[in-house]
Amino acid sequence: MSGSRSSSVDVSEVGALAARIRSEIGKAVVGQDDAVNLLLTALFAGGHVLLEGPPGTAKTLLAQSFARTVALDYGRIQFTPDLMPGDVIGANLFNFQTSTFSLTRGPVFCELLLADEINRTPPKTQAALLEAMQERQVTIDGKSHPLSPRFTVVATQNPIEQQGTYPLPEAQLDRFLFKHVLDYPSAQQERAIIVGHGSRTGQMDPKSFGVEAVAERAAIDAAIETVAKVRLTDEVVGYIVDLVRATRESTDIETGASPRAGAMLAVAARARAVLDGRDYVIPDDVKSLAAPALRHRLILSAAAEIEGRKVDHVLSGLVERVAAPR
């Protein structure tokens, strides 16, 4: 019984930490509650997040505000068509004074990396992040260099149908725990944005809005340990398996989700349970995360594309059809 009480205390502490982060981000970003909750879920689940949306929907400001609140070593890369892999991970440069090579570390050597407009650079440069995101290390000239065990990527991209963009390869997309699609704000939220931002001149950054760090590294580590202890019953595991396998059996989907996707969905569901104040996962945790966890891992069949079907619509139908445990 004492172990159960200890777990409850840990869960409440994580909830309080998340509330402080939400409050700080709210100083700069109006609305986008779903995006904030997914960033928190990914932080405590140790995953990466891809934010997609049209220009002007606060993708970059949201990522910057999130980074500022969690007090992690922060790095940023503005992806452009002429960016090279060495600009991301670094390179061994020859020092003529000492006649030796020395490592110049790239911006990827940080704890929280903002990969801004990641789809504006060619796949060759995008691929420089693959090893970093999967194994939290980079290889330069045959030598491996470890990154922080907390290394996390928050990437932004404009919709791929816009000019001057390169669609992310499937292998790159699979490294992201979530892909969240930001929409335009409601009329009330847009009014609040204009009132709060319309009188400002100069740089719109989190610091100017008074956003401060409220989550120390030790608190984040403790939250991640709490998530790892959350109970996942056999019934919920079976539900995740059924959901993932349903994406491979649908005639509307050419390529379904992998077993890795199911494992990542399970970790995310544990984090969502903690954010909701529970030390056990319920089917609704899985259901609420199915779209952001799976939408970027599915490829529609040719027939579905011809019919104008959308991935989110097909995925929503699968979630409705797969029976959840009671």
UniProtKB/TrEMBL annotation:
Keywords: ATP-binding, Nucleotide-binding. The keyword ATP-binding applies. It comes from the Bacteria. InterPro entries: AAA+_ATPase, ATPase_AAA-3, CbbQ/NirQ/NorQ/GpvN, ChlI/MoxR_AAA_lid, P-loop_NTPase. Residues 45-186 form the AAA+ ATPase domain. GO terms for molecular function: ATP binding; ATP hydrolysis activity. Transmembrane segments: none annotated. The keyword Cell cycle does not apply. Belongs to the MoxR family. This is Magnesium chelatase.
